[in-house]
Amino acid sequence: MGHVDHGKTSLLDALRSTNVADHESGGITQHIGAYQVTLASGQKVTFIDTPGHEAFTAMRARGAKVTDLVVLVVAANDSVMPQTIEAINHAKAAGVPIVVAINKIDVPGADPQKVRLDLLQHEVVVESMGGDVLDVEVSAKKRINLDKLIEAILLQAEVLDLKASPNRDAEGVVIEARMDKGRGSVATVLIQKGTLKVGDIFVSGNEWGRVRSLFNDRGQKVLKALPSEPVEVIGLQGTPSAGDDFIVVDTESRAREISAYRQRKARELLQVKTMSSAEHLLAQIKAGEIKELPVLIKGDVQGSVEALNGILSKIANNEVKVHVLHSGVGAINESDITLARASKAIVIGFNVRANPTAREMAKRDGVDIRYYSIIYDVADDMKKAVEGLLEPELREKILGYAEIRQVISVSKVGKVAGCMVKEGLVKRGAKVRILRDSVVVYTGQLSQLKRFKDDVKEVKEGFECGMSFENFDDLKVGDMVECYEMEEIAVKLTFDV
Ligand code: GDP
C-alpha cells in the first residue's frame, strides 16, 4: 500500500520478474489481483495487489483478514503523502504489521532519512529510530535491495509464526470476482486453510458452486491450491463479492441450503431499515459493550485538524474513550468512508464536506458523518457520545445541492448565481452553505430564489435557478450550494445558527 506513483506496481513487477523462474515468466500473465513469488530458497510469498486501500478495507469490512502484513511503499523523493497516512491508518486499524519499502532511492534528491522521520510522526517507528518496524531502502527501477525487502518480509513473517494445515477442507477469501463472458462467474480466491481441489463443493458469500477448474496467477491450469495460494476458481453459480468467505462443504445439498439461507438473510437485512453505524455504536456504549469510540476527523486546515485531534483524543470517562483513527486535511473521501465503515467510526467534517461519491457510499453503508464549524461543538458532542447520550436524530437535514454555473452582477442586488440543481432540491428560506472544493466558504441564508424572473419557493433537481445570498458576494463558478434545514429539535447541536 502507499501513495499513488510511489512505485507499488513497479515494485511488484520487479519482485515478480526477479523471482519468477524464467520458464514461468514466459507464460501469459493474467491479472488476478494476487501474485505468488517463489524464492530461490523455495519459500513462497503471496502479494495481494489491491488497487487501493478501499479494496483492502472493504475486504476487512466484510470480516476478512486477507493479509498477514502490509508493505508500505514510500518514495524517498516524495516522502510521506496523504495516501501514505491513509494506508498506515488502514493497516493499523486492521492490526496488521507494516514493513516499509523506501522506494526510488536511485532518484537524485532521494532522502530516505526524511521518510523515516516523517513516518515517526505517524507512529511508524523503524528500527534505526528505536522502534520495531523493519524498513528497507529499495529501487524498483534499478532493482536495488529487492532481496533485502523479501528478507524483511520473511523475517516479519517468522515473527508472526504463520501456520496453516493443508490437510483439511479448504477455506479462503475472495479477492476479486467478476462475470466473464464464456466462463461465467470467476473468483480469485486466496486459500487460507486446507487444500482446494477440482470437484470440491463450496459456499462463497451468498453463492455456492463446484470447482470446475482452477488457474494459478500465471494463467496455468492447476488441480489444487494450497494455503496462501491465490487461484482463479471457475464453477460458481453466482458472483460473490470481494471479501466474501469461501468454504468447502461436504455435499451439494448442504451448499444449496447455506446459500439459500444467506440469500434470505441478505434480503431481510435490506428490508430492515438498518441502524446507522453511530446509532449502533451509541447503543453499544450505553450497554457497556464497547470501550472505544472510533472517530475520523477531516478538516479544512491543518491547525484545526491538529487541535481537534488533541482535544478529542483526551475525551474519556471511566468506561469509554475517544480513539482518533485517522485525521487529515481535505474533503471526506471514499477511503474515509470505507475506513469508517470497517471500523464502525463516526466521521467528523470540520468545515469540509464529503465528496459526492463518499456521500453516496455513506448513505448506502449507514456511515454517520457529522459536520461542524465550531471546535467546542465537536468536543461537546463527543463528550455526549462517550456517555452514549448523543442523540443521533438531532441533526441537520440536507435538502440538496446546486452548482454555480454563472455569476452575474445585477445592479442594486449585487452578485447573483446562475445555478443548476444537481441533487435533491433547494428551498427559499432554507439555510445554505457554499462549498468551494468541499470546503465551506460561507454559511447563511438564501435571500433570493428565482426561476427566470419569478420568485419561487423551491427548485428541484435538474432545473436551473438564480440565487443570491445574504451578505455574501464572493461567488465563483464551480462552487456548490448546499441547502439544508435543521430538524425541529436539532437547532443547538451542530451549528452556530
Ligand atoms: P504506483 O502508483 O504506486 O503503483 O506507482 P508505479 O509503480 O506506477 O510508479 C510510478 C512511477 O514511478 C513510474 O513512472 C515508475 O517508473 C516510477 N518508479 C517506480 N519505482 C521507481 C524507482 O525505484 N526509481 C525510479 N527512478 N522511478 C521509479
Name the features.
34% strand; 497 residues; six-stranded antiparallel β-barrel; 28% helix; 13 helices; binds guanosine-5'-diphosphate; Rossmann fold; 4 domains; Elongation Factor Tu (Ef-tu), domain 3; 26 strands; disordered C terminus; six-stranded antiparallel beta barrel; alpha+beta
Give an overview of the whole structure:
The protein is an alpha+beta fold and 497 residues long. It folds into four domains: 8-160, Rossmann fold (3-Layer(aba) Sandwich); 171-271, Translation factors (Elongation Factor Tu (Ef-tu), domain 3, Beta Barrel); 277-390, Translation initiation factor IF- 2, domain 3 (Rossmann fold); 396-488, Translation factors (Elongation Factor Tu (Ef-tu), domain 3, Beta Barrel), CATH 2.40.30.10. It contains 13 helices and 26 strands. A hairpin with a 5-residue loop joins strand 10 and strand 11. It starts with 7 loop residues before the first helix and ends with a helix. Guanosine-5'-diphosphate binds next to helix 1.
Biggest sheet: strands side by side, in what order?
6-7-13-10-9-14
Bound molecules: guanosine-5'-diphosphate
In CATH, the topology of the largest domain is named Rossmann fold
Strand content: 25-35%
CATH class type of the largest domain:
Alpha Beta
* Secondary structure tally, helices: 13
Total count of strands:
26
Calculate the mean pLDDT score and round it: 85
Structural class: alpha+beta
- How many whole angstroms does the radius of gyration measure? 26 Å
CATH homologous superfamily annotation of the largest domain: P-loop containing nucleotide triphosphate hydrolases
User: How would a textbook summarize the main sheet?
Assistant: 6 strands, antiparallel, barrel
The shape is: globular
Q: Give the total of domains.
A: 4
Q: Which regions are unreliable across 5 or more consecutive residues at pLDDT < 50?
A: 21-29, 488-497
Query: Roughly what percent helix?
Result: 25-40%
Amino-to-carboxy terminus distance: 42 Å
Q: In CATH terms, what is the architecture of the largest domain?
A: 3-Layer(aba) Sandwich
